[in-house]
């Protein structure tokens, strides 16, 4: 074969393969990947001859001396074409059932992720050795012993804390977050994990200086008038240096540790995979919803790695009004993803406060945080003593805005009603407000929940009660009644739990419950003041006025219709477009199934019938030829239904259908 002929044959063959792939995909009415569709058509083209021979052989030997009638020839041609298209359709449906899209990475993706897989495998090995060294191996496999006594829980909690400390920054942060989730973990684990610290040795200046120069756009000596190379403090994510701008203003420079982003990225991927494994293999993992916890933790720690988010958080909290608490202002033009420059607050550690200052500072801090949570909706989510300073004027300064919570108006309103109902000791109001804060289960026993909350308030709202035990008992009620706390509300409880320890450090014996109830009373007084009530009434009237103007005409129209016997009600079924699409798709599948089954039954009947005009001499009758065609048509229809059944909905499809 000469070259032009080879090129022509190759072009025709490629065109036939593309037409075959297009026809198979259109008949299945399901979008497949281009590579998968082309491969199925290519295999079908190669297998066509070997598969058509036995099929045509069932028609019996044909007499070459007798030319078949035109209709029979057309039927035979249609049968060959449909069998030809049926082969890639069957291959695509089989691949959809055995190897769904996304279950096997493509060649480019596999090559791109090979290096990451090797690196993650080394990190897996390190973490596994750490876990085994601390005696956690059986628990990772879901085979650990069930611990009923307190001593066993304490022993396991200490092992977990040691493993998290040895695991590095990501796992230390994970333990710190878990230490605030009294609704998920026993008290022994909460207490032990609360001792985790992420104070580490500072990175050497030789590694910090190039990063600062790259992020600030020039050498440190040119950007700043003065810069202290000895860190003021160092943590696992970053370290802090003192500097002075050319304007004379004293600032603090927070710089991220070089290479910490890559380490945290690998560790977050491992945390997500471990959570998925434990949720799939263990009962306690499923009950805690470990995958959702891991996703929320990953989002929070990624925000901490972007200092631009912290600068925006700082500005948002400062804009809400600090009152007796001060915040450092960021120097926006000098802030980047890995460097944060902010105003320096002058003062000492808050633990240096005198016994006389302690109660006032504790009240100021509690009032500040409650106002951030309930009124402003932007709050500091980690108010531990290390993030507080006693300023030179005797007031508090709040630092480190890497962890900030945000609440929308509806959640803030529900939390306000919750606190005010707690202040009134109103079980019904507390129950209603709580069910607005958390997702409401369908089968919740509201009267029982109301009684449990009433007993809870009778037990804990008396003077001198332990606030830590109060939080623990509230989380027990939430867990017993199957209520799940949203991440933004969990951040509130995390902040309050951290705040409780800080308040005790500032003022031993501080009555958190009493002061919170006092804040609720003051807030209620503010809400019912003449100006506030007048403004609220004006807003409500403005919202209701358009409806009130239309109301008389609508009432008159309804009354007139009722008087003349024309009053009726219309109910539109399937008014939602999503419902119509679902029902239409279901009807299509049912119709295809019925048509496929009918064609199959008719094919069997015709193939089993005797007699009839001969279509393909000497033995194949017209009825049999029609039966073979109906059998192939039935197979095509069944494959189309199977393709829709095996096709797993993609995330984008789910998102579109939920809109």
TrEMBL record:
Q: Which UniProt keywords apply?
A: Membrane, Transmembrane, Transmembrane helix
The residue ranges crossing the membrane are 6-24, 33-52, 72-95, 582-606, 626-646
This protein's record includes keyword Protein transport: no
State whether keyword Transmembrane applies.
Answer: yes
* Boundaries of every ABC1 atypical kinase-like domain copy: 195-430
- Coiled coil: which residue ranges? none
Q: Which Pfam families match?
A: ABC1
The text of the family note is: Belongs to the protein kinase superfamily. ADCK protein kinase family.
Provide the protein name: AarF/UbiB family protein
Which organism encodes this protein? Nonomuraea antimicrobica
- Read off the lineage from the record: Bacteria, Bacillati, Actinomycetota, Actinomycetes, Streptosporangiales
């Amino acid at each position: 074969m000469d070259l032009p002929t080879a090129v022509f044959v190759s072009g025709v063959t490629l065109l036939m393969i593309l037409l075959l792939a297009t026809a198979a995909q259109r008949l299945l009415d399901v979008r497949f990947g281009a590579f998968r569709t082309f491969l199925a058509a290519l295999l079908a083209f190669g297998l066509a001859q070997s598969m058509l021979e036995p099929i045509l052989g069932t028609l019996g030997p044909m007499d070459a001396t007798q030319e078949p009638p035109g209709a029979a020839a057309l039927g035979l041609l249609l049968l060959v074409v449909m069998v030809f298209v049926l082969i890639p359709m069957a291959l695509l449906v089989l691949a959809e059932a055995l190897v769904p899209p996304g279950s096997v990475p493509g060649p480019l993706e596999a090559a791109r992720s090979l290096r990451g897989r090797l690196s993650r495998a080394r990190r897996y090995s390190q973490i596994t050795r750490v876990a085994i060294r601390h005696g956690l191996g059986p628990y990772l496999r879901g085979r650990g012993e069930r611990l009923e006594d307190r001593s066993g829980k304490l022993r396991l909690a200490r092992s977990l804390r040691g493993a998290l400390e040895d695991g590095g920054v990501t796992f230390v942060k994970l333990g710190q977050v878990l230490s605030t989730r009294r609704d998920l973990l026993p008290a022994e684990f909460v207490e032990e994990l609360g001792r985790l610290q992420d104070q580490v040795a500072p990175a050497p200046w030789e590694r910090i200086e190039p990063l600062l120069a790259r992020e600030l756009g020039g050498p440190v000596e040119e950007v700043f008038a003065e810069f202290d190379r000895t860190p003021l403090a160092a943590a696992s994510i970053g370290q802090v240096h003192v500097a002075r701008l050319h304007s004379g203003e004293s600032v603090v420079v927070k710089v991220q540790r070089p290479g910490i982003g890559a380490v945290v990225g690998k560790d977050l991927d491992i945390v997500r995979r471990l959570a998925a494994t434990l949720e799939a293999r263990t009962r306690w993992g499923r009950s805690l919803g470990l995958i959702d916890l891991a996703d929320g933790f990953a989002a929070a720690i990624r925000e901490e790695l972007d200092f631009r988010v912290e600068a925006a958080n700082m500005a948002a909290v400062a804009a809400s009004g600090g009152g007796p608490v001060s915040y450092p202002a960021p120097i926006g033009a000098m802030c980047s993803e890995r460097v944060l420059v902010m105003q320096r607050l002058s003062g000492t550690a808050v633990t240096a406060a005198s016994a006389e200052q302690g109660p006032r500072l504790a009240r100021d801090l509690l009032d500040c945080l409650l106002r951030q949570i309930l009124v402003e909706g932007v709050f500091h989510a980690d108010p531990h003593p290390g993030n507080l300073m006693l300023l030179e004027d005797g007031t508090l300064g709040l630092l480190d805005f890497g962890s900030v919570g945000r609440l929308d108006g509806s959640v803030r309103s529900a939390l306000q009603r919750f606190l005010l109902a707690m202040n009134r000791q109103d079980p019904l109001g507390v129950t209603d407000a709580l069910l607005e804060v958390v997702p409401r289960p369908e089968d919740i026993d509201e009267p029982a929940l109301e009684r449990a909350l009433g007993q809870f308030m009778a037990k804990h709202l008396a003077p001198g009660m332990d606030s830590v035990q109060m939080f623990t008992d509230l989380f027990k009620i939430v867990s017993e009644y199957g209520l799940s706390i949203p991440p933004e509300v969990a951040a509130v409880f995390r902040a309050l739990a951290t705040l409780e320890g800080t308040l005790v450090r500032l003022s031993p014996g501080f009555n958190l419950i009493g002061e919170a109830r006092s804040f609720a009373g003051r807030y209620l007084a503010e809400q019912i003041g003449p100006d506030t009530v007048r403004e609220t009434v004006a807003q409500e009237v403005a919202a209701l006025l358009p409806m009130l103007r239309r109301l008389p005409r609508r009432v008159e129209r309804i009354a007139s219709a009722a008087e003349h016997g024309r009053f009726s009600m219309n109910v539109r079924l399937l008014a939602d477009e999503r419902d119509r699409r679902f029902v239409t798709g279901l009807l299509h599948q049912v119709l295809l199934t019925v048509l496929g089954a009918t064609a199959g039954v008719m094919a069997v009947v015709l193939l089993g019938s005797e007699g009839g005009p001969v279509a393909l001499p000497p033995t194949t009758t017209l009825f049999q030829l029609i039966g073979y065609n109906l059998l192939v048509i039935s197979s095509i229809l069944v494959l189309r239904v199977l393709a829709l059944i095996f096709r797993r909905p993609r995330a984008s499809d789910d998102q579109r259908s939920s809109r």
